Amino acid sequence: MPSRLLVLTDRAQLPAGRSLVEQVERCVDAGARWVCLRERDLPDDQRLALATSLTGLLRPVGGRLVVAAPLPAAAAWGAVADGVHLRRSDPVPPHASLVGRSTHGEAELRAAVEQGCDYVTLSPYAATASKPGHGPALGPAGLRRVIDAVPLGETKLLALGGISSGNAAEAMASGAHGVAVMGEVMRAGDPGRVIRALLPD
């Protein structure tokens, strides 16, 4: 299992003039080792090129790239993606080595665990600028309640949504294995500083 910090991409939130590859490179230089490539709106060839570039940043430092479903069937994806991140209704692919799934409550979390997902994101932990109105926010008490209700077994749970340096430790103290972050990093002029603040000691 990769580190306790998962960075999700969203090029729409980048600072003006900054490329996604450059933003992720700054994150990797600061210690990020696990990235989820989203960018589902891109044509397959452009998305594959982005995945190839990000893998080129991550693998030399022992990092891993997961790609948000749907993945094309092209064999080239197997060479650049270490795993797949599924939406709530995506089927589990038969041969993926690392499988994650987005969940938003107890029922979805339980289903993902029963499917044998390696990790899940549970959201929203807090109010989030990336998806305003998405909620209600779990907060530490809500997160603890869901975790207590669903035996996770080997599945690692990452808190997602409104995660920042101010609440990441709180989320992990409330039972999350780690945190997943998008907007706080993607919008940052200095994403390396944000990564260093988010990484667990």
From TrEMBL:
<protein>
    <submittedName>
        <fullName>Thiamine phosphate synthase</fullName>
    </submittedName>
</protein>
<keyword id="KW-0784">Thiamine biosynthesis</keyword>
<dbReference type="InterPro" id="IPR022998">
    <property type="entry name" value="ThiamineP_synth_TenI"/>
</dbReference>
<dbReference type="Pfam" id="PF02581">
    <property type="entry name" value="TMP-TENI"/>
</dbReference>
<comment type="pathway">
    <text>Cofactor biosynthesis; thiamine diphosphate biosynthesis.</text>
</comment>
<dbReference type="InterPro" id="IPR036206">
    <property type="entry name" value="ThiamineP_synth_sf"/>
</dbReference>
<dbReference type="InterPro" id="IPR013785">
    <property type="entry name" value="Aldolase_TIM"/>
</dbReference>
<feature type="domain" description="Thiamine phosphate synthase/TenI">
    <location>
        <begin position="7"/>
        <end position="184"/>
    </location>
</feature>
<comment type="function">
    <text>Condenses 4-methyl-5-(beta-hydroxyethyl)thiazole monophosphate (THZ-P) and 2-methyl-4-amino-5-hydroxymethyl pyrimidine pyrophosphate (HMP-PP) to form thiamine monophosphate (TMP).</text>
</comment>
